[in-house]
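Response to reviewer comment R2.3. The reviewers asked that we include at least one raw input/output pair. We reproduce the pair for Molybdopterin-binding iron-sulfur cluster-binding oxidoreductase MopB-3 here without editing.
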Amino acid sequence: MPTEIRRSVCPYDCPDTCGLLVEVEDGRAMRVSGDPEHPFTRGTLCPKMLHYEKTAHSPLRLTTPLVRIGPKGKGEFRAATWNEAVAIIAARWREIISGYGAEAILPYSYAGTMGLVHRNCGHAFFHRLGASRLDRTICSPAKEAGWKAIMGDTPSPHPDEVAESDLVILWGINAAATNIHFLHGVRETRKRGAQVWLIDTYETPTAAAADRVILSRPGSDGALALGMMHVIAREGLIDKAFVEERIQGFAELAEQILPGYPPERVSAITGVPASVIEDMARCYARAQAPFIRLGSGLSRYGNGAMTVRTICALPALVGAYGKRGGGLLASTSTGAAFAMKEVTREDFMLRPTRIVNMNRLGHALTELSDPPVKSLYVYHSNPASVTPDQNAILRGLARNDLFTVVHDRFMTDTARWADVVLPACSSLETGDVYRAYGTYCIQRAWPAIPPVGESRSNWDTFAFLAEAMGFDEPYFSQTEEEIIEHLVAIPAPMRDGIDLARFEEGKGVELPLAPDAPRTFRTPSGKVEILNHREPEPLPRHLPTHEEEGNLPLMLMTAPTLYALNASFYEQDELRERQGGMRLMVNPVEAGTRGIGDGERVIACNERGKVEFTLAVTDRVPPGVAVAEGVWWSEHAPGDRTVNALTSQRLTDRGNGSTFYDTRIEVKKAR
Ligand code: SF4
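Raw output as returned:
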């Protein structure tokens, strides 16, 4: 059979949302490459997706339902039919509902697929069931809250505007791993003469694209922004016209807050020399159009939302929000592109049910009562690896009275603890609609290959479960194609004027963003609201992190890598090898004082757990910091735990977000 080329979309939780071309022969994906016609990603992919066919056709793919036959967690299963597996699930759920009520059932999912239908269709099923709801706040709700507090619903600038900037600040973003197409634009801008700075907690691979690297202590980025604003105000470098006409609360900031952040004090908080803070402030204020690309990691501390809010005040002082090529890109807000309520169906809930924060799954499984969680249904997520406080989660998953179902492509660390495992499709086997969050693009995809083995999509699995539970709403008897058609048929102002022909061909399509949309402030006052009385704290300031006074010496950065995305892609041997093993990076000074050396087996520990790593000694990491890149599967780890045995269930100041980076550890030689 001749090779056919089909379009698809990268489904992973990455801001770029690349367009793919899939070469298909006899129903098999033979090769995956970037779609040169995609308006933002333009034909290039990161190394993770260059061999997506190896993930789709991995020998590790689950191909039939499985039912547990051994003790919990041993990974001993027998094959079952879908009919049998679904009958077991339905029977157990009926029993649980009659004994404890449906809120004793907890769904758990996040962004294993970013496809709008398959990611969100489980909401409708669990709303209809009356199950507990999951507060899906593991990623960046504090970042959203920080932006909203000062910018309201203002959209971030288009990433291509960076071409018009003369100073680009990559603030807390390892774009070389997590936003490669934006970084490509930054490199082009730099070639034309723009300065590029990287502000981060350690020297990430993105440093190679920067003229200047500023290392700030973990959780201190808000203080750094305040120090820069102090200098800008003190030296009269503000944009007076912009400040007078378009900012609410500059006078209050200047009088009540900024005097408390002279460079010397900020230096003590951040570790950045006072002279550097002063120079940064002057260079920033003198730039014609300074552009900040803000990462998400700096929002994953106890002070995360306030940090983002404070950094977002900085461009206002110099009028950067009013200039093309200037301002701050936090995330592109494409949420209004589709009427998602048609997929999530909150109206199926008979009454508002209990909400469980996904970062506190360990607490939910071990301590929650009235009712206790008696069943956990996990889909396109792997909480035993990616969710904070791994030991608490594993204690919960080990409960013999917990009925756990996992729907996944692989035997993940979570699936090993399941009572029933269901085989899931990869994104190449399903249709869906995607919207990017690092640019203004949408794309529709159709299945490129048939399901591998007996795997089923989220949509088909929930339809099957709905039938088994006796749900007769027409919603559940639609096909995948019908729900997608329904979703794309509903008009949305954000999609007005898109190239429909391209969209229907499955090509990436730009959402038309009005040229001045990022410069038209959608706040109640119509101004940048540095002063916001709707917030518990009306003005930005530096808040301490949870671990500000912690007594362990090293702050742990659980950082991204180019070769994995959280716990995804560990099925590909080559990608694992390119990561060089599960390593903990520390500065030579920290290694020297502990008598541990490069390549040695070490144990990182705190009050929550102990994790073995291979030590990597490098001066890319400053003293006081340790870095663990990637979220490894335990089968490839040096010990029996992975990095989230060290992270905590504490939440952010706003948004109930995760605080992965607000973690202290000690490191010692493994015995
Ligand atoms: S992970 Fe990101 S950069 Fe890599 S292919 Fe997917 S969308 Fe593109």
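The first helix runs from residue 52 to 56. Residues 142-330 form a domain with the Dimethylsulfoxide Reductase; domain 2 fold (CATH 3.40.228.10). Further pairs are available on request from the corresponding author.
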